[in-house]
Amino acid sequence: MSKRNIVANWDIIDEDFINDFINVPDGLPILLMNILDEFDEDIELKRFNIYKIRPEFEELDKYEIAITSNLLKEGKSSEAEEFQIDYALEFLEKYPQFSSMVNGVESAEHNDIKIALSSIKEAFLGDLDYF
Fold first, then answer.
1. Cα(87)–Cα(2) distance, integer angstroms
2. How far is residue 49's CA from residue 55's CA, in Å, rounded to a whole number?
3. What is the C-alpha separation between 111 and 82, in angstroms, rounded?
4. Is the CA virtual torsion 82, 6, 116, 57 positive or negative?
5. Which of 33, 62, 68, 115 has fewest C-beta within 10 Å?
6. pLDDT tens across 2-15, in order?
7. Which DSSP symbol is given to 28?
């Protein structure tokens, strides 16, 4: 299990923030999408609808899933968790307008990330052709 955890800032998230986020021309980090999913359960559907207009966005979103799935297949769950955290933090550095959605990174005392990774593994492992 990862020793770090991303801490969300729920106060700044609103519909405009989400719309700006889902229109970023880059791969959207799973951990950040999970944070926004707490505010808007349709965020993944909204991003999917953007694929119809900008199909290249779908390929960008596959990158993190492919790396994470490969690490999980190799039994490297800690590395997969760290990769996802690093991927999210690098995204926030690249797009600082979204950095306010995170209050920081703390030492992980619980297994929220492990649960998220397990969900990804169950949903996508062996079915990467879906994306």
1. 14
2. 10
3. 13
4. negative
5. 115
6. 678 888 888 999 99
7. P
Q: Which residues contact 115 (CB under 8 A, 6 or more apart)?
A: none
Model pTM above 0.85: no
Kindly report the backbone phi and psi dihedral angles of residue 130, in degrees, each rounded to the nearest multiple of 5, phi listed first: -60, -35
Element (H, E) at 36: helix 30-37
Amino acid (1-letter code) at residue 52: K
Q: What angle do CA 79, 114, 1 make, to 5 degrees?
A: 50
Which pair of structure tokens corresponds to residue 128? 């990467």
Q: Which two tokens stand for residue 36?
A: 């926004």
CA distance to 15, 18, 53, 65, per residue, from 92 (Å): 19, 14, 24, 18
Can you say whether the dihedral through the CA atoms of 42, 35, 88, 91 is positive or negative? positive
pLDDT at residue 131 in the model: 43
